[in-house]
Design brief:
alpha/beta; globular; 10 helices; 8-stranded mixed sheet
């Protein structure tokens, strides 16, 4: 069993990952702004502060660091100040982790999160890890600087990996929770614009098990797309949600111009089409439990994960 430190351990992915790791018998340490006690002897909380660049040294007595830190991309409209928070929360977390690692006698392995936003608006072209978008939009730039920050500490760790994460499906938060609201409140399946934009998604448990397998060395270290093998259009996801729930609902388009007016620059996060390949991680040995949207949503709605 390993001791695994998670930065961003209280977020959507981190919370589920903590549960899975603890159930498997691993010791889990979580970096948080406010340290607190835990009623689970497999889980402990350790304080850190990105502003002062300080952290509890005890937290870094670990075998693996998984860094999921980052302010929510779609939590607020993208003002210039919000953009700064989104970028700095990612880069400054890595800066602090790098500083703490230099003080360790034995170097841990490191897994850093990125996002498929680095591919920009790729339409229906399947993007692989070797490809980078030439787009100049905000999300591409954030992901590029995020990955550069991760890579800056790669020589200081034992094994180094990065995962480019797609849309994580869970009823606990993220995009799916928002898409469910019109269905739950008014039996309306709302898709965006034409609904033809491609989304590269992943079931939250597949996302977590990829991180578990990387931490355990079951998957070789490296750069991987963390997405299911079958990307789906926005309209296909809405149709699958209606079908799996088994309740009548009307499909309604949200006009593209309305979304751009309401969300501004942030509308690109739902209007861009990003088709991303999972071939590399499958070839590395990972077997997806939920490869199709219907199978993923069936499990998610049945278990409320």
């Amino acid at each position: 069993m390993k001791t695994i430190l998670i930065a961003g351990g209280t977020g959507l992915i981190g919370s589920r990952l903590t549960t899975i790791l603890a159930q498997k018998g691993h010791q889990v340490k979580i970096l948080t702004r406010s340290a607190r006690s835990s009623d689970n002897d497999k889980i402990s909380y350790h304080q850190w502060d990105l502003k002062t660049q300080t952290a509890d040294p005890e937290a870094f007595d670990c075998d693996v660091i998984i860094n999921l830190t980052g302010a929510g991309i779609a939590d607020q409209r993208w003002s210039e100040n919000r953009k700064k928070v989104i970028l700095e929360s990612r880069v400054n977390s890595i800066k602090l982790i790098g500083k703490m690692i230099t003080q360790l006698p034995e170097k841990p392995s490191y897994i850093g999160a990125s996002a498929v936003g680095i591919y920009g608006d790729s339409e229906k072209t399947m993007m692989r890890e070797s490809e980078i978008s030439s787009d100049t939009d905000f999300m591409v730039e954030v992901c590029r600087l995020w990955e550069e920050a991760h890579e800056s500490i790669s020589s200081a760790v034992d094994q180094f990996s990065m995962v480019r994460i797609g849309i994580v499906l869970s009823t606990k938060g993220g995009a799916l929770k928002e898409m469910l609201k019109p269905l739950q409140l008014a039996r309306q399946g709302v898709y965006f614009g034409s609904g033809e934009m491609i989304y590269s998604w992943i079931h939250i448990d597949d996302m977590c098990h990829i991180l578990v397998d990387l931490a355990a060395g079951k998957i070789p270290s490296g750069l991987y797309n963390a997405v299911a093998p079958h990307p789906s259009s926005n309209k296909e996801i809405i149709e699958s949600m209606i079908d799996v729930r088994g309740k009548f609902a009307i499909k309604i388009p949200a006009p593209e111009f309305t979304l751009k007016l309401a969300l501004g620059e942030m509308s690109s996060t739902i209007l861009n089409s990003t088709s991303v390949s999972s071939e590399k991680i499958v070839m590395a040995g990972y077997k997806f439990k939920y490869p199709t949207i219907n199978k993923a949503l069936t499990h998610i709605f049945d278990t409320s994960v």
